[in-house]
From TrEMBL:
Keywords: Signal. It comes from the Bacteria. This is Phosphohistidine phosphatase SixA. It comes from Mesorhizobium australicum. Residues 1-19 form the signal peptide.
């Protein structure tokens, strides 16, 4: 039984590493869009006193999350075509992830990347706005959109871990996942 578990874990690790390498290969060519879930921020949901203008009222990155964001930025710089544009939700954990990873000058807040409840009436409108941004992207480098789990799930039908990059392409009227990079 233990041998089977070890074998399964080894196969999972090898598959994840292969997927990550394939993701880097895509990003080396540039011209791609990346949905990046913010780095590690302990807990779930927002505190009762949440205020979008005050980071001290939000769930924020931990020290490990800040380290993760710096690491992913260094890896992007070393392994991918330049990041030409960075959009984030207005939540502090996404803005901090973007700033630590890609630098302060390149970050633009984009309300359509803000989290929403699964049954929210804003969900469809926000998703359409994100799709419009993807449709309009024509840079030679990559565009990164730092957002939240619920947004990535709504746009792709797939989940992402904290700090995971999901490389997407517009297909039909939605986003198709081309690759993933796990940090």
């Amino acid at each position: 039984m233990l041998r089977c578990l070890i074998l399964a874990l080894a196969l999972f690790a090898a598959t994840a590493a292969g997927a990550t390498e394939a993701g880097w290969a895509l990003l080396r060519d540039g011209g791609h869009v990346v949905l990046l879930r913010h780095a590690f921020a302990p807990g779930s949901g927002e505190p009762a006193n949440f205020d979008i203008e005050k980071c001290n009222t939000q769930r924020n990155l931990s020290d490990a999350g800040r380290q993760q964001a710096r690491k992913l930025g260094a890896l992007f710089a070393a392994r991918a075509a330049p990041v030409e544009r960075v959009l984030t939700s207005r939540w502090c954990r996404t803005k901090e992830t973007a700033r630590l990873a890609f630098g302060t000058d390149d970050v633009e807040a984009f309300h359509a990347l803000d989290p929403f409840a699964p049954d929210s009436p804003e969900k469809d409108a926000q998703s359409r706005e994100v799709l419009d941004e993807v449709r309009a992207w024509s840079g030679s480098g990559n565009m990164v959109m730092v957002t939240h789990l619920e947004n990535i799930a709504a746009l792709t039908g797939e989940n992402a871990r904290e700090g995971e990059a999901v490389i997407v392409q517009l297909r039909d009227e939605g986003l198709h996942v081309l690759g993933r990079i796990r940090f």
